[in-house]
Amino acid sequence: MTHENRIAELLAEFPVQVQIPVAWGDMDAMGHVNNTVYFRYFETARLSCFAELGMGSIDQSDVGPILHSASCRFRIPLTYPDTVTVGARIGDIGDDRFNMIYRAVSHRHGAVAADGESLIVTFSYSTGTKAAVSDALRARLVALRGDA
Q1: pLDDT for residue 22
Q2: Gap between the Cα atoms of 70 and 92, Å rounded
Q3: Which among 14, 22, 66, 132 is placed 20 to 30 Å from 98, CA to CA?
Q4: Does the pTM of the predicted model rise above 0.90?
Q5: CA–CA distances in Å: residue 45 to residues 29, 115, 128
Q6: What is the separation of C-alpha 11 from the centre of its chain, rounded to a whole number of angstroms?
Q7: Is 122 helix (H, G, I), strand (E, B) or coil?
């Protein structure tokens, strides 16, 4: 199986995908990509997902996403030169929040470099409080998740 086929297989469940080149400056003194950089990779995929959901900026009602928490399971070290494809998908959807699941796949190795997850809360920026996931957003989340 080619690396391209392996990458596609590893990301088959992720409807949003972004390719990110590994930069020399992403590496730390230990000679591999610093663990904090993986969170930037996930952020890039998350923002691409938000754009796909029409959440690229706070809408007229001022309700938008805010990151509650994030986690990462590091599987293999990345080094320069490489490219990672980072996939994002929607997980559980609650009354005022939803989960996002991420996967970063190394093109050089044809393997998963990291898996991650985050909790996104819908937030009113004018009141500083949580807000309900609107029916319209819920429908877009469900459609992107693929179980509409």
Answers
A1: 98
A2: 15
A3: 22
A4: yes
A5: 26, 12, 25
A6: 12
A7: strand
- CA quadruple 16, 19, 23, 29: dihedral sign: positive
Tell me how far apart the alpha carbons of residues 82 and 100 are, in angstroms, rounded to a whole number: 25
Per-residue model confidence as pLDDT tens digits over 49-96: 999 998 866 555 688 899 999 999 999 999 999 999 999 999 999 999
Query: What number of residues does the chain have?
Result: 148
112 vs 93: CA distance, rounded Å: 25
pLDDT at 16: 97
- pLDDT at residue 54 in the model: 86
21-43: average pLDDT: 96
- Angle, vertex CA 52, rays to CA 67 and CA 94, nearest 5: 45
Structure letter (DSSP) for residue 53 = T
What pLDDT is recorded for position 60? 55
Instruction: Look up tokens 């309900």; give the residue.
Output: 132
Residues 6+ apart with CB under 8 A from 67: 46, 118, 119, 120
What's the Cα-to-Cα distance from 81 to each of 8, 26, 36, 109, 115, rounded to whole Å?
Answer: 20, 10, 18, 11, 20
pLDDT score of 112 more than 60? yes
User: What is the spatial distance between Cα 39 and Cα 108, in angstroms, rounded to a whole number?
Assistant: 20
